[in-house]
Amino acid sequence: MVHALACGAVVALFGLSYVVYVALRALWDLFAGKVRLSARGVRARGTCAGHTSGRYGTGVVVTFADLSGMTHHMVASAWEGVLPERGSEVEIVYLPRNPKVAGVWPVRALVPNALYMAVAVPVLLAAGTACLLAAAWIARTVWFSG
């Protein structure tokens, strides 16, 4: 009975540590994408094609042309400030190698995201490490106590 409970606890702790890993990976990808966009992005002018509303507020649909002349659409979600009218110009930034990665210029939320990362990453790392250490402790005391 003890071995079954210990096995369940170890599996649950490994599962929780995996969830922590996925959360860390998502945070890193989000932050690194914003940094990459602001550092390597090319600024361009786009045209407001319309508006959309969703989970995070009102967004603006922007149509823009990349350096090769191809037309792309992007949605600037959670628009801050006054919404541009249809047909008005919006300054955007996009990655030249992948124009589907685009955002409104200037790329906002780098400093708040950096502060958030400075708090969230250590907390998540500590939680993941605690899960793994607890799993190792349970395994050692139940199965390898002799």
UniProtKB/TrEMBL annotation:
<keyword id="KW-0472">Membrane</keyword>
<keyword id="KW-1133">Transmembrane helix</keyword>
<feature type="transmembrane region" description="Helical">
    <location>
        <begin position="114"/>
        <end position="139"/>
    </location>
</feature>
<keyword id="KW-0812">Transmembrane</keyword>
<protein>
    <submittedName>
        <fullName>DUF3592 domain-containing protein</fullName>
    </submittedName>
</protein>
